[in-house]
Write a structure and sequence with these properties.
Helix 4 crosses helix 6 and helix 4 crosses helix 13. Helices cover 30% and strands 28% of the residues. The mean pLDDT is 92. The two termini are 32 Å apart. The chain folds into 2 domains: 92 residues, OB fold (Dihydrolipoamide Acetyltransferase, E2P); 301 residues, 2-Layer Sandwich (BirA Bifunctional Protein, domain 2). The strands form 3 sheets. Strands 6, 10, 11, 12, 13, 14, 15, 16 and 17 form a 9-stranded mixed beta sheet that branches. A 5-stranded mixed barrel has the order 1-2-3-5-4. It is elongated and about 85 Å long. The longest helix is centred in the N-terminal third of the chain and has 23 residues. The structure holds one RNA strand of 75 nucleotides.
Amino acid sequence: MQRIKDLPKRVGEEVVLRGWVMNARSSGKIAFLQVRDGSGVVQAVASRAELSELAWQNVQQVSQETSIRLTGTVSEDPRSPSGVEIHLSDLEVLHLSEEFPISKKEHGTGFLMDHRHLWLRSSRQRAAIKIRSEVAQAIRDFHYERDFVLIDSPILTPAACEGTSTLFETDYFGEQAFLSQSGQLYLEPAAAVFGKVYCFGPTFRAEKSKTRRHLMEFWMVEPEVAFLEFEGLCDLAEEFISYLVARVLDRGAEELEVLERDTSKLEAATSPYPRITYTQAVETLKKAGVSIEWGEDFGGDDETILAEQFDRPVLVTHYPTALKAFYMEPDPENPELALALDVLAPEGYGEIIGGSQRIHDHDLLKKRLEEHDLPLEAFQWYLDVRRYGTFPHSGFGMGIERFVAWVCGLKHLRETIPYPRMLNKIYP
RNA sequence: UCCUCGGUAGCUCAGUGGUAGAGCGGUCGGCUGUUAACCGAUUGGUCGGGGGUUCGAAUCCCUCCCGGGGAGCCA
């Protein structure tokens, strides 16, 4: 059994393939089948004169998405979309597909989302999911090559992580439990075990967000490093994004072409990124005519305006403490500022990374928990990190769907994950 | 939650007070190099649900349901 991606190496040989018919064109005594097997797409040419009566009948009856087993000879042919094609000597129908709901013509988003399990078979969707898979592998490789240890943080958690966002609630043997919205708090104790750790898994937000930048369930990668301070964190974030972009450009070239992505816009993102402070960002926005005052957070449009100033991702640092999470370390030179970092992707894709140096002083962290009205007893284990050999440490989180949307040039996050969980929508 | 646009054939849509339409898909027929093939024929409807106005409603009004886009929040 051969796979389509290996066919260029088998010119002149007879091969057997199993796969699905994407399209069939018949012309009386010759027919063309576009066949997909998961590794690629190839055109099979059927000539009536060269086939048995049964095989020719089979060729005539195949419908879109019919599963087949074919036998034929590989040949080079410039008239074939992939450069090689197969001259059929036999074709067996494994299952004659019913009328496939997704035709070659246009469809609306709602219809496609209802048929997500079938929509995935189309070429653009395959390309996006393949790149997601490559990105996930690159994330693991990046950390593995740098001696990070994988810490799988729990998905069922007893209390709100940051105390702000809406969480999905569930019952845990009579106790209240929540689906995790971040693994960070569980990562910090582990940083005291291995020094460099990361988690990578699904996270859940029950916010009623209804935009192209939000999903209810998304995958987040979060590194956390002991004794890493803020400047080092910025370097790590930059190195990380550069690594992932270079990897996609290298190994996802074919898929980026299917997606018609302008890769020149990604090339710049493999070298150093500009860094500006929140205060500088506010000045930039004011000059651009945005009505914003120091101390206000950026909206989606503001992020786009900021990102448009550069041809590559930009690091925005030193946000006002009031805008950020309770655990972020204050800037020693100005306690009103937090050692916080956001990375904004170009082309309007918005925030892809959020991170910070963490508060490592026990009393300050305790004070912040009280200021945010968070229950101290629930965070006792988290405070313990600051009681037994505390240490400066930093980390960030990256939502991989936003990263994939950016590198693929996709408008909406729903196409970057196989089965998106959207507001009020959980089928299929 | 708020703003906004929409729901008519399997799909994408037109029809804005007077007999329910087109393209694509499907089906049948034709065609020996097709590239979303092409040509001919054909099939296909609870006009989102309920109520109201009218001689007459897909069309106007009320209400509910569902979907798209956006805001806020965030990754």
